[in-house]
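Me: I'm a chemist; would you kindly supply a protein sequence with its structure tokens?

Assistant:
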Amino acid sequence: MKKFLIALGLAIGPLAALPPAAMAIEQEIPDFEFRPATIGDIDAFIFEVKAARDQQLKALEQKYGEKKKKITGHQTMIAFNKIIADSQKLRARIAKTRADSLAQRRFMQTQRLYYGVMADIGGASQPGKISRLTKFIGNVAFGPIKLKVANIICPDQKIGRRQAKLEAQNLAKPGKKGVYSAEELAAMTAFEISRLEPVADHIAYTGDKPGNHYQKFLDQTLKQIRAIDEKYVQYDFNYARRVLFFDEIKEDATSPKITTKDRYGLKWKLKWGDEVHSDVAMTRLYIDLGGRYTDLKFYSGPAETILVLEKAGKDTIAATFDQLANILLNSKFEFHAHRYLLPEPVIKDKAGKILGTGIIDEEMAEREGIPAKHIGCYYVLFKECQLSLYNPAIKRLGGAALSNVGAVEDRVARSSIVFNSWIKNKDMKDDNSRVGLLYNLKTGAFDQQVEFQSDLGCTLGALTTSGDLNHFEDSMVMLMPQSINFFMHPLYIPQAWKKCTWADARWMAMRIASLGRNDLERAFADSGWPVFSQKLAIEKLINRRNELVKAFKLEEDGFRELPCDTKFTLTIKGKDGIDQPVVKGKINADSPTVRKLEAEVHPEGLANVISRRRD
């Protein structure tokens, strides 16, 4: 309790400094009707979807005119057609047999796809400012009290009918068809229920044992991209992100960013700020834990990516670095791009304004594979940035329902409270998870429905900073008299989290505990952080993992605490003598090594991280 009271004061203090955008914590579709799989409800649903499709078709025709491929290939039209076709097939099946658990699950998945479509075309809304502010303050200030699961004192006893009704639905029977009923769960213990798996065709979860899955995920995605169009048959992630061409400023969310295009014509988001490292590492952990899909994100270090600016003309907005920097500074981000520019070499005009790192000449164009039309353009090299691909192998839709449409009964959605508390993801609103249709190599169509967490950057930090390892606590569990509480101050709490049972939470805790130190090291190796920062993050995550082992009695399933040292001191010998970049579990702001890295590579800071909101 003392820990909570201290945290309460720390949480309320910074609220006044947060911008209005921080209060935008809810992005849900109000009054979305979640229907059971009956003939009447399916008919009503099909009627509603067809009407929405016709309305969207008119909007797209107005936008694209005679460009039929733009319309038919639009993500919403593909999704609408799939929803209608799947619903009609389901109706025909139910008419012949009955609405069993499989039919109910299929219809739920179809309705979740519809939710994602409606969120994509603007169906999500916000409550009033006062309501948002009240909920925001309540979530942030009382997060460690709200984020909890009931503690089970005797998990080896049968749970009974009352508790069985509270457990997740659609838990698969190993080696058999069908799922467990509430009656069957009632005769099981909490330990036994925690070991049950979601159905094999879950749209967000692969069912794979936690481990090294990210490279396989990358390889599969690359195959999908190459199969979509002949012009992508030689597509390569490393080659693609070596040279990017400026496209436009992207003024959404809160991190400073621009959109660019690679040499194949595909779009990439280029982002700076305090999420650059955490987002990359966490996407890899997400896949390694069994996530079915997530956005492709890569770290780019000093001079690794060449940003080609626009050719000067009357309609250009960023032909020089000075123009780009001014646009970012005057945007909603108020971002100082100069801090991220490699200081040498640079070209300046007579007034001292920076034009770019250099000019593309014929030799550079040939060496880097840059089209001749860009000869004469300025290019820019940064100290660091993050790159996120607009993957053509997925028709990406709007936010995934986390408080409706079956989420509150789903083990994966419920137990995500543990994963997100483990990595301290404060911003788990609908819009930071997405619905999508993946390209199917077997059918040649976008017909594989997936859901995934798409924004994992707001992690490993403090209330207002991300990737802030000095303020990322090494502890996450608070044991209360009758509950296991998670120490975090979230901006938003999905309804699914509020329904998480001890068995749900223990299931996710076992998945997290299955990851070894080598798994964490592999995920953080791509983050771009210096090795000592990676080590600090890993030590803290392992300690938090060890707390889960104790709190959820994972020893019963063979899990043990892993050795870790969150208060380690790292001493290195350099040409200038002894240096300690980490002292007692804190990145040392006075370390020459840390200061040098912050000046040359990491402008957002390592010891004292600058929030993107205060850049």
